Amino acid sequence: MEILKTVLMILLAIDCIALTIVVLLQEGKSAGLGTIGGMADSYWGQNKGRSMEGTLVKVTRVLAVLFILLALALNLKVFA
């Protein structure tokens, strides 16, 4: 059981580092203020889900769910 706990802790550390990097790569919410000037109709505004920003949002969600699952698994009484 100690080996499994160690592996989960290493995965959690890698996930934390990756999550931090992905969040820092994202643009701030203030970048979306261009919609006031009508920029929402641009190519990037219409295809936001397929752009790099959309990909980063999806990766952030996956890494966040993985973080929560790993944290819960490490806190189970089985590993104590």
Topology readout:
Blueprint: H1 2-25, H2 43-46, H3 52-74
Question: What are the salient characteristics of this protein?
Answer:
single chain, 80 residues, mainly alpha, translocation
Could you explain how this protein is built, in words?
The longest helix has 24 residues, at 2-25. 64% of the residues lie in helices and 0% in strands. It has one domain. It is mainly alpha-helical. The chain contains 3 helices and no strands. Helix 1 packs antiparallel against helix 3 (52-74). It has helices spanning 2-25, 43-46, 52-74.
Question: Strand share of the residues?
Answer: under 5%
Element pattern in H and E: HHH
Count of the domains: 1
* Protein structure class: mainly alpha
Distance between the termini: 9 Å
Mean pLDDT, all residues:
82
Largest sheet: none
Helical segment count: 3
Shape: elongated
**Which spans have pLDDT < 50 for at least 5 consecutive residues?**
none
Q: What portion of residues is helical?
A: 55-70%
Keywords: Cell membrane, Membrane, Protein transport, Translocation, Transmembrane, Transmembrane helix, Transport
Main location: membrane
Organism: Dorea ammoniilytica
Family: Belongs to the SecG family.
Outline of this structure?
The protein is mostly helical and 80 residues long.
